Each structure stands twice: as C-alpha cells, then as structure tokens.
Amino acid sequence: MTTEVATEYQFKFIDVGVNLTDPVFRGSYYGKQKHEDDLNALLERARNAGVSGMIITGTSLGESQEASTLAKELDFFCTVGCHPTRVGEFDKFMGGADAYLAALDKLVASNLQGKGRTVAIGECGLDYDRTHFALPEVQQKYFRSQLILAKKYHLPLFLHSRAAHTDFVKILREEGFGENGGKAVGGKGGVVHSFTGSSEEVSELMDMGFYISVNGCSLKTEENLKSVKAIHLDKMLLETDAPWCSMTGGHHSQQYLTTLPLSLRELYFPPSTKPEKFTPGKTVKGRNEPCAIGGVAWVVHQLHDISMEEVTEKAFGNTLELFGLNV
Ligand SMILES: [Zn+2]
C-alpha cells in the first residue's frame, strides 16, 4: 500500500471538460436507475489520481444552471452555454431566442466571482455530424449569439467543432476572433475541446490564438495522433469529457498505454465493472471518469517525446492562464 501513497499527486491535473451533471454519475442510465449514486467515490478516485480541479461543462441553459450549482457545492468551476446539438432550445424557449440568450447572460453575470464561478462561455460551436438535432443554419446563428457573451464578459470560449471546421473558423473570424483569440473585440481566447480534427486545423486554430484540448477521443486513430503531435505544448490542455471519450481497446492510443507503470494504472484506470454488476469502489465500464485524465497525459508525453512532468505541468499552467484560475 505504501507505494500507492507515494505515487499520489505525483502529477497534478485540472480536468477542463467534464460533464459532471450527467445522471450516469448518480447511477441512472437513459432514465433507468442501475446502481447507487457514486459521485463521491468518483471524486475520491479523481483526487487520488491528482485531479485537483474540474471545469464542469454546461451544455444548455438548464444544464448550465445545474453545472453552476454543482461547481459551487464541490468548489470547482463551470462553463455556461448551449451545445450545438441543443440550440433548438433557443427557439422553443418561452419568450423566444432573445429570452434564452438573456437567461444565459443572467446566469453568467450572477456567477462571476468566488466558489463555483463561471470561467468560460460554452460549450458552444458547430457539430455537422449531428445536424438531425439542429440544422447547420440554426447552429451557426446561436453560435454567433454566444460569442457576444464572451466579448461582453471577457471570458474564454469553451468550443466544440465537429466536421465543421471551415464554417467554424469563418464565424470566429467574422465575429472578431481571428487573431489573439479575439482580444481586440473584448474576447479572451478559448479552447477547442475534444479535438479530433487534422493537423492543418491545429495550426490554423493556434494561429488564431486558441488552445486545443485533448481527451481519449483525440487519440483514437493514427490521424488523430498525428494531429495531437502538431499541438504546441504551450497551447495544449487536457480533459476527459467524462462520461464520454473513454480510451478503449481498438484505439491507437492503446499501444502507448502498455508502458504505463502499474502504480499509475491503478490510479488512472481503476478496476471496472458493468453497471448491472455495480460494486462500490469500482468504476463502471464504458463510463469515463476524471481520474483517467492521467492516461491521456501518458499518451501525450510519449507522442511529444517529453517527460510526463513536463506535459502535466504545462497543461496545468496553461489551464490557470486561460481560465484565470488561482488554485
Ligand atoms: Zn463537445
């Protein structure tokens, strides 16, 4: 047991993208309660793995409110915004789209200081893989609306871009985020999270002044790995996007995890079980958790051929800088 204690906090992380309001962390899957609420156990596993902070993602007005409440309770941080697949809510909202934006605005304004504060606008952006939730035109319109909030409150953006790079950067440029992360128009840059684009896209986004965040989905294919190699260390952030984006067998990242020492493997990938066979203290198969962020860093350190210390310290420092944190 003593060796385990010695490795605790060896590397420090802030998970910049975690969907901690997802009901699966309370044992509920697609409306069905499959096991007890194990959020506290998840938090303990995260702490053991060196995750000292989290930015809880808000993906709609309702979920941003929940993210904000949970962030206060747990002394983490949150984002406020509406995901491209959820922007249909703007038009359906009582009072219409303007009222929806005003409600997001109010939530940001009421939560800019202290514990659990809003540190970014988002997640927002474009997702052309899932246009059945909202048409591209609708996504574009409400992506632009949310950029206004980032300028107004001088907050970084927490961005989502899927199969939409051309339109994504076009809108950012048109709204003044084409260089220095939009500093000239009151913006404070941002991060393109869960990155799965090409290395050319990496270069363009870095040139515009944006950070890029890597998780298990960013390390799936050979092409993905090439893109992650192209991210400059001073523009890289780390996240899990839990409960999504687990690193699983068949992903190209697996070959880099074979060298993960057992002491770290126990912290980053604790034993798991199926939700139906839930056992207290174990993680759930297929449900990603913040403790797995160490696995992401492990792969990145090998791809970039630098030490684990350097990757984790850089990502940690970048996170403090972008989101203005002092933890
Ligand atoms: Zn996303």
UniProtKB/TrEMBL annotation:
A divalent metal cation 1 binds at residues 123, 241. Belongs to the metallo-dependent hydrolases superfamily. TatD-type hydrolase family. The keyword Transmembrane helix does not apply. This is Mg-dependent DNase. PANTHER family: DEOXYRIBONUCLEASE TATDN1 (PTHR10060:SF15), TATD FAMILY DEOXYRIBONUCLEASE (PTHR10060). It holds the Pfam family TatD_DNase. It comes from the Eukaryota. InterPro entries: Metal_Hydrolase, TatD-like, TatD-type_Hydrolase.
